[in-house]
């Protein structure tokens, strides 16, 4: 019963089903308590222990965040599009909400360094601006199809 | 002009060595062999990861944003990347400054001073400061994406500084400073 086994379990059974890294990031951030910053996953804690589950969630969260921070603008935009496409019927509404509330800011792991945090926030902001433009004036059929609910 | 600058640089270097020598003399009575390692413990602050600045100044991102968005978004993107690169550079400068302060403090209590390496360290530090100032100036004149080579140079010099200090103090600083990024990546 090691953290590695818990990570592997989490990746195989839960994260693999999520569409893309942004979805994984949001999901993993959602397993973190808003007040204490502690991660909790009932199923994982039952199989392993609460502590191991917490470590596994934290490590996966860090890993996904690092992947997104190291991704190019094009890759990040694809990930955001994938997330919008899979979870929100109204792209315009999604962009407006994310622009105003900036929920992605609370999805950042606690262990991240300040520059990575700023880079991620900045990249998401730019990705949203590009998406907004695509929604208002789709350039070609493939982009329009991707953004259509 | 070049000769004058060279003379000033040599003079400063000699002054610095003299300063270290005097400082050593003062603290000779209370020399402790473990002191350098203790001083070096404060150096666990990591240099900002080099791959981050490569990402921040990646011209492919600029090309992509330029192709995909309006002029306003491109300007926003350039502003954001410039700000990020400046944060990265200033953090590197701060941590190299911290390294040098700790190094000087540790060297004062070190019996086994190695002048050759100390001179090398001083020269690297002077080069780093020069490169840093030049990069900052070019940032404002040319924009962040045009000075990538300078930023890479600053990165390489700062890594070398850590390496030389590690050789002098005999503490695995790089391993210590790698630890946070490893845990973050795992």
Explain what this protein looks like in three dimensions.
The complex is a heterodimer of chains A (149) and B (186). Chain A is mainly alpha-helical and 149 residues long. Chain A folds into two domains: 3-69, no CATH class; 73-147. In chain A, 70% of the residues lie in helices and 0% in strands. Chain A has helices spanning 3-13, 21-30, 42-47, 50-70, 73-87, 91-101, 114-136, 141-147. The relative contact order of chain A is 0.13. The mean pLDDT of chain A is 91. Chain B has one domain (2-185). In chain B, helix 5 packs antiparallel against helix 6 (115-142), helix 5 (71-108) runs parallel beside helix 7 (148-169) and helix 6 (115-142) packs antiparallel against helix 7. In chain B, 28% of the residues are buried. Chain B is mainly alpha-helical and 186 residues long. At the A-B interface, helix 4, helix 5 and helix 7 of A face helix 3, helix 4, helix 5 and helix 8 of B.
Write the layout of secondary structure elements.
The complex is a heterodimer of chains A (149) and B (186).
Chain A: H1 3-13, H2 21-30, H3 42-47, H4 50-70, H5 73-87, H6 91-101, H7 114-136, H8 141-147
Chain B: H1 2-26, H2 35-40, H3 50-56, H4 59-68, H5 71-108, H6 115-142, H7 148-169, H8 173-185
Helix pairs in contact in B: 5-6, 5-7, 6-7
Which stretches of chain B of 5+ consecutive residues score pLDDT under 50?
A: 25-42, 172-186
Radius of gyration of chain A: 16 Å
**How many helix segments of chain B?**
8
SS-based structural class of chain A?
A: mainly alpha
Overall mean pLDDT of chain B: 77
Shape of chain A: elongated
Helical stretch tally of chain A? 8
Say how many strands of chain A there are.
0
Q: What's the structural domain tally of chain B?
A: 1
Unreliable spans of chain A:
none
- Approximately how much beta-strand content do the residues of chain A carry? under 5%
**Span between N and C termini of chain B?**
52 Å
In this structure, how is the largest beta sheet of chain A organized?
none
- Whole-number mean pLDDT of chain A: 91
Distance between the termini of chain A: 42 Å
Structural class label of chain B: mainly alpha
Give the amount of beta strand of chain B, in percent.
Answer: under 5%
Strand and helix order of chain B:
HHHHHHHH
User: How would you classify the quaternary structure?
Assistant: heterodimer
Tally of domains of chain A: 2
Largest interface: A-B, 25 and 30 residues
């Amino acid at each position: 019963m090691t953290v590695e086994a818990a990570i592997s379990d989490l990746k195989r059974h839960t994260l693999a089903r999520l569409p893309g890294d942004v979805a994984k990031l949001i999901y993993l951030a959602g397993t973190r308590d808003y007040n204490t910053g502690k991660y909790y996953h009932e199923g994982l804690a039952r199989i392993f222990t609460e502590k191991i589950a917490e470590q596994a969630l934290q490590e996966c969260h860090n890993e996904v965040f690092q992947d997104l921070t190291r991704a190019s603008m094009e890759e990040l935009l694809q990930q955001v599009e994938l997330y919008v496409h899979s979870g929100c019927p109204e792209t315009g509404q999604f962009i407006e909400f994310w622009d105003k509330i900036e929920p992605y800011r609370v999805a950042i792991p606690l262990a991240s360094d300040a520059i990575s945090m700023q880079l991620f926030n900045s990249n998401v902001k730019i990705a949203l601006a590009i998406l907004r433009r695509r929604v208002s004036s789709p350039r070609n059929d493939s982009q329009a199809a991707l953004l259509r609910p | 002009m070049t000769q004058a600058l060279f003379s000033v640089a040599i003079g400063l270097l000699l002054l610095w060595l003299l300063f270290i020598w005097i400082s050593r003399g003062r603290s000779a009575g209370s020399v402790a062999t473990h002191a350098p390692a203790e001083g070096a413990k404060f150096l666990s602050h990591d240099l900002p990861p080099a791959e981050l600045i490569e990402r921040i100044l990646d011209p492919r991102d600029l090309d992509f944003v330029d192709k995909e968005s309006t002029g306003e978004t491109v300007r926003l993107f350039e502003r954001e990347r410039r700000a990020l690169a400046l944060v990265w550079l200033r953090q590197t400068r701060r941590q190299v400054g911290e390294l040098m302060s700790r190094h000087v403090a540790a060297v004062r209590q070190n019996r086994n001073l190695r002048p050759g390496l100390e001179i090398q360290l001083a020269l690297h530090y002077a080069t780093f400061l020069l490169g840093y100032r030049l990069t900052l100036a070019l940032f404002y004149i040319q924009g962040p994406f045009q000075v990538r080579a300078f930023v890479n140079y600053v990165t390489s010099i700062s890594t070398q500084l850590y390496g030389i200090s590690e050789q002098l103090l005999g503490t695995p600083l790089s391993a210590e400073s790698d630890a946070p990024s490893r845990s973050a990546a795992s």
